[in-house]
Here is the input.
Amino acid sequence: MSKILAIESSCDDTAASIISGGKILSNIASSQKIHEKYGGVVPELASREHQKNIMHVVQTALDQSGISKNDLDAIAFTQGPGLLGSLLVGVSFAKAMAQGLDIPIITVDHLEAHLAAHFIASPAIALAAAGPEFPFLCLLVSGGHTMIVKMDNETDFQVLGRTTDDAAGEAFDKSAKILGLPYPGGPLVDRNAKGGNIKAFHFPEPDVPGYDFSFSGLKTSFLYFIRDHVKADPDFVQKHMADICASYQHRIVTYLLSQLHKASEETGIKQIGISGGVAANSYLREMLKAKEQELGWKVYIPAFEYCTDNAAMVAMAAKFKYDAGKFAGPQQIAQPEINFPDLSNILN
Here is the structure.
């Protein structure tokens, strides 16, 4: 029964998790509040905070799991994509610890980990009881990525469509900033949208061939919409915050699900899931469940704690690689721009 320590440090959350025999025994994260006053993540500050937090986070994960470091069979870490300075902290710590314990390392792509979140089971549930059947379509939506991925098995992926410019999470965060909401703004748009009228304002749906996405034009239209209405009425945003957020969020979510529906129809796959930070959006979850009833999908939505950046998803991806004997050599380095799913550079 493999026991693996997994470390996630791709952005501004320092996280560690212990998995044993396919069960998550601990999942610890330390979030960095320092970035709030800057309205976004400051890379240099993020790497410094990781250095401060990583030893405590790892030790807490070990203590909570009841597993001794000497009982570990491997150490996994997020190799990329992400902020270089942040990744370096996790990579260096994991490699040094693995060398000291004389155990192998496992490299994990951050996006691959988000896909693996669908297979996480609680300590009381066997691994076989969790997760979708294959083939499986996943809408992976986060602050930096938006794509539709076809999974043929736990380690075999095919990207059917991806954003040609900005990501859905960025579209949420930028709209929040325009509205004067603090960072991180995406969850605040979701919160303010509750009780709002989704039909109050109209935003255009992007028109992109195939299963790809584009959000740059939608962001620009939102900017001009707010600019023009505020020019006519300086209190426009304050008066209509709920309706603005509801209408804009509705457009993003219906666009995401429209492309996912197209992919499902043309591939014939009805095993459907979402992952990534935007998968925590309550309206996206609600609409996906509605599609399940309408289209006969079997929908899988990870628990909220496994949607945003966390180490449990890294641990689950590492477990699959451990079982397949896919270990990495000591020469592996942080790769902030890994081209998912071309994982050949991190599987050997």
About this structure: The chain has a mean pLDDT of 90. The two ends are 22 Å apart (CA to CA).
